[in-house]
Structures are given as structure tokens and as C-alpha cells.
Amino acid sequence: MNLNATLFAQMVVFLILAWFTMKFVWPPLIKALDERAKKIADGLAAAEQGKAELEAANRRIDQSLAEARDQGQQRIADAEKRAVLVADELKANAQAEAARIIATAKADADQQLIQARETLRREVATLAVKGAEQILKREIDAKAHADLLNQLQAEL
């Protein structure tokens, strides 16, 4: 065997194998690697986009929480104002009711005072008539002297 022929044959086989590999094996491998690289790049881009969306969502959530907090504080302030107004209204109603009760009590007291004075005048007139009767030792006719008794009653 000839060493040159063996080397030549091996070189031919190698070139055929290289050509076969470049023609049939290499393109699917390159295609698979390119697809894999594209998927990885797409995944990284999607991850970056997801990260940006997450940050935007977090900002929106923070903004919504701040608005909700502000609205809650506003509602509390409105409720406190309304409570103060209701308390003032109740106080005014209570004062008006107290004034009305006091006025009614004063009117009742004045009416009772007038009645007591009238009763006292009648009793004094009756006592005066009895006293005069005893002084004169005769009976005074109340019907006959009604004008005199009314005048006496008015003076008392």
C-alpha cells in the first residue's frame, strides 16, 4: 500500500464528509441555533417588557392608593363637618326647647299667681265681711252689698 494513495483517499473522504456536513448537517444546526438565539432574545425582550409593565402597574397602584387615601381623608373630614353641624343644630333645638319650656313654666306660674291672688282676695273679702258682721253685731247681706264687696275686693 502506498502511503500517498492512502493520504489522498483519506483527504477525498474528508472533503466528501466536509461537503456532506456543510450541505446537509450544518444548515439545520445553524437554523436550530438561530431559532434558539431568537427565542432567547424574544424571551429577554418579553422579560424587559414585563418588567416595564410591572413598574407601570406598581406606579398605577401607588397612585390609586394615594387617591383612595385622599378620598378617605376627605370623607372623614366631611363626616366631621357634618357631625359638627348636626351637633350645633341639636344644641340650637335643645336651647329653643328649653326656652319654650321656661316660657310655658313662667306662664303657668303667672297664671297660678293670679289664681292665688283672686282666691286670697275672696277669702280676705269673706273675712272682712265676717269681721264687720261681728263688729256691727248684725248680718250684712252679701247680695245687697255686692257692689261694696267688689270694690273692696278690687282694692285688695
Automatic annotation (TrEMBL):
It holds the Pfam family ATP-synt_B. The keyword Membrane applies. The chain crosses the membrane at residues 6-26. It comes from the Bacteria. One of its GO terms (cellular component) is endomembrane system. Residues 44-74 form a coiled coil. Keywords: ATP synthesis, Cell membrane, CF(0), Coiled coil, Hydrogen ion transport, Ion transport, Membrane, Transmembrane, Transmembrane helix, Transport. It is a single-pass membrane protein. The keyword Transmembrane applies. One of its GO terms (molecular function) is proton-transporting ATP synthase activity, rotational mechanism. It is found in: Cell membrane; Endomembrane system. Component of the F(0) channel, it forms part of the peripheral stalk, linking F(1) to F(0). The b'-subunit is a diverged and duplicated form of b found in plants and photosynthetic bacteria. F(1)F(0) ATP synthase produces ATP from ADP in the presence of a proton or sodium gradient. F-type ATPases consist of two structural domains, F(1) containing the extramembraneous catalytic core and F(0) containing the membrane proton channel, linked together by a central stalk and a peripheral stalk. During catalysis, ATP synthesis in the catalytic domain of F(1) is coupled via a rotary mechanism of the central stalk subunits to proton translocation. Belongs to the ATPase B chain family. F-type ATPases have 2 components, F(1) - the catalytic core - and F(0) - the membrane proton channel. F(1) has five subunits: alpha(3), beta(3), gamma(1), delta(1), epsilon(1). F(0) has four main subunits: a(1), b(2) and c(10-14). The alpha and beta chains form an alternating ring which encloses part of the gamma chain. F(1) is attached to F(0) by a central stalk formed by the gamma and epsilon chains, while a peripheral stalk is formed by the delta and b chains. This is ATP synthase subunit b. It comes from Chitinasiproducens palmae. The lineage of its organism: Bacteria, Pseudomonadati, Pseudomonadota, Betaproteobacteria, Burkholderiales.
